[in-house]
Amino acid sequence: MTRDPAPRATPRPDPKLSELLGGRAGAVDATVPVVAFVLAWVLAGWAGSAYPINWGAGAAIVSGAAVAVWRLARGRKPRAVLFGLAGVIVAAAIALITGRASDFFLVQIVSNVGSALAWAISVVVRWPLLGAIVGGLLGQRTRWRRDPDLLRGYQRASWAWVCQYAIRLSVFLPLWAANEVVLLGLARTVLSPLLVGLSVLVSWPLLRTALPDDHPGIRHPR
């Protein structure tokens, strides 16, 4: 009597990049201090305060600290929470030192410049950051890089992230130069999450264009 062959395990489908990269919590955390700064700065100006930047900076730090406490209570990693709060404190300090409200956004602008360069360089040197991030989240370490098709796909998809940082800078820099604080706050609150969402959305189709039909997917580098 022969035994029936054991059924083959069905490979798990690829996870959505939005699941790996996503999470709305980070976008909310970053947006709350920005909204608090702009609102406090505007209201203090309308009220005739001689130091509206002080009010804006104080509101940003207080709201950032409140978000940090909330996230720590919800079990988020302390390092990520404290790093975000430190960014808010540095941004507020810069605005207070320079006396220019739009300088609150300098940290964000410099960060975008650095990110655009880092993503572009990573593609050129064949260590695309999207592959490093996704591969790390999937526990692959550098195995993804030994798959020529997957490497090429991550390179193509990484250009979407370079473009979104370039678009941000094309909007932020003129507004910062013109000291348009309200518009900067609006762009930071609306444009940045929108561009990140679009980058996540187009990354998967771009990645798939480099993979042959018989490729097992990002979970299984060949």
From TrEMBL:
Transmembrane annotation, as ranges: 21-47, 53-73, 80-97, 117-138, 159-178, 190-207
Recorded coiled-coil stretches: none
UniProt keywords, alphabetically: Membrane, Transmembrane, Transmembrane helix
Pfam families linked: DUF3159
Name of the featured protein: Intracellular septation protein A
